[in-house]
Amino acid sequence: MARDCRAPAASSFMALLLVAAAVVVSFLGGGAEARKSSNITVVGSVYCDACANNTFSKHSFFLKGARVLIQCNFKVNSSAAPEEISLEAERTTDQHGVYKLDVPPVDGFECREGHELRSACRATLVRSSSAACNVPGLRGSTQHIALRGPRGAAACFLNLNALNFRPAKRDRTLCHGGGSNAFGSSLFFWPFLPLFWPPPLGFPSPAAPGGGAGDGQ
């Protein structure tokens, strides 16, 4: 029985990847209708920096219902001369602390992978959903990574670095030593792989201390 209990763990992980891949193929490769809905997706996340040290520690958690403002400038190639298209929109984070903006197809837009800043999007904090964690910390994104979908530029993901709120007062008992198991950097990207979303169950996204989570209206 011991062998039967250990083997399914690996197979379950592989099954999860296969399901995720199937969802991606369905989303990106479902024909012209799927491609028409959106070819640019801006994603990012908001978390509570519980120890107010601008890192994601074991006491940190992602915020559901936080509101952000997304501003984008897209450089496009036209027959006459290069043009720039600007847009902005507010979005609210989901249960995993992730916000997403689907942008309709932009003629002449070229998705360049990596930290290419020819076209760029920026997110800034608007409002927290938690009364216990509502002081802006890292309030504006400073970097993004562009990732292409399986069909090349037909699907382009712009992944912005995570933003955070923090409590008004730092809990010295909870955060003794600055909070262990931290990333050690204020800049990190979540979700790491937009193509394989949502994340596995168990990623830190509990309600805020004191039950202050709301709907981010």
Automatic annotation (TrEMBL):
<keyword id="KW-0732">Signal</keyword>
<dbReference type="Pfam" id="PF01190">
    <property type="entry name" value="Pollen_Ole_e_1"/>
</dbReference>
<feature type="signal peptide">
    <location>
        <begin position="1"/>
        <end position="34"/>
    </location>
</feature>
<protein>
    <submittedName>
        <fullName>Uncharacterized protein</fullName>
    </submittedName>
</protein>
